[in-house]
Each structure stands twice: as structure tokens, then as C-alpha cells.
Amino acid sequence: MGERLRKLGIRLAETRSTALFQLATELPAAVLARPLGIDVTAAVKWQRAAAGD
After folding, report:
1. Contact 4, 27 (CB under 8 A)
2. Fewer CB near the last or first residue (10 Å), C or N of the chain?
3. List of residues 6+ apart from 50 with CB closer than 8 A
């Protein structure tokens, strides 16, 4: 699937980052961390980077 998306010009890393930034502006860090399977401290860093805290 990744190959098909690349052929369409969709950059996966950029798309993932954009989605995480958007989520970080909308959700508290504890809520963001659990479904993504990341540590709360990582979610807090995403929030700070997105200026969502």
C-alpha cells in the first residue's frame, strides 16, 4: 500500500506528522497517547510542538 501511495505522490512521513499534529491540538496528551501506543511524554512533546497545550 505504501508503494501505491508513493506513486500517487503521497508522502507517508509528512502525512503522518500532519495527522499527529492535528490530533495533538484537539486531544489531551493522555488521551492521545493510549490509542497511538506512545508514551504520554511523547504525546506531550507532540502537543508542545503543535502548540496545543
Report:
1. no
2. N
3. 20, 21, 22, 24, 25
pLDDT digits (tens, 9 = 90+) for 6-40: 899 888 888 888 888 888 888 899 998 998 898 99
User: Which residue type is seen at 22?
Assistant: Q
52 Cα distance to chain centroid: 12
Extract the C-alpha cell encoding 5: 501511495
Residues 6+ apart with CB under 8 A from 46: 20, 21, 23, 24, 29, 32
pTM of the shown model: 0.61
